Amino acid sequence: MGKRYERASDDHFERLGFLITGFEHLFSDNWRGEIELEGLSVRIKGGDVPAFLVVLRGYSGDGTPVVAFHDGLSFSEAMAGAAERMANGLLKWRTDEYRTK
User: How far apart are the first and last CA of the chain?
Assistant: First the structure.
């Protein structure tokens, strides 16, 4: 394989490493954000252009179950965007009606 492919592959794995480390921090006891993150799932949205939807679940400061969403055109884009928005406090959290029933 050529050098160009190797560099792209190296960049991809470096980004993946940062992504994993970022999520480990968000799920760790060291996280001091407003939301206590409980879990996440990824769904593939079908259609002409497939996309990935990250569903994040957690609890607000008063214990209310909350949910937030972030999507992207690739798995890594969706996950990286969700992690960045979570870390920066930019996710729009909503009461999780499904878990409050």
Answer: 54
Amino acid sitting at position 24: E
Distance separating alpha carbons of residues 87 and 25, to the nearest angstrom: 9
Around 24, how many Cα atoms within 13 Å sit in the side-chain half-sphere? Answer: 6
Structure tokens at 65: 């179950």
- Cβ contacts of 41 within 8 Å, gap of 6 or more: 54, 55
Which residues face 45 on adjacent strands? 51
Q: How many CB atoms lie within 10 A of CB 31?
A: 14
Average pLDDT of the segment spanning 22-46: 75
What does the pLDDT look like over 82-99, one tens digit per residue?
888 887 888 899 999 988
Q: How far apart, in whole angstroms, are the C-alpha atoms of residue 12 and residue 77? A: 11
Q: Which position has the token pair 């969403």?
A: 69
Pairwise CA distance, residues 54 & 78, whole Å: 7
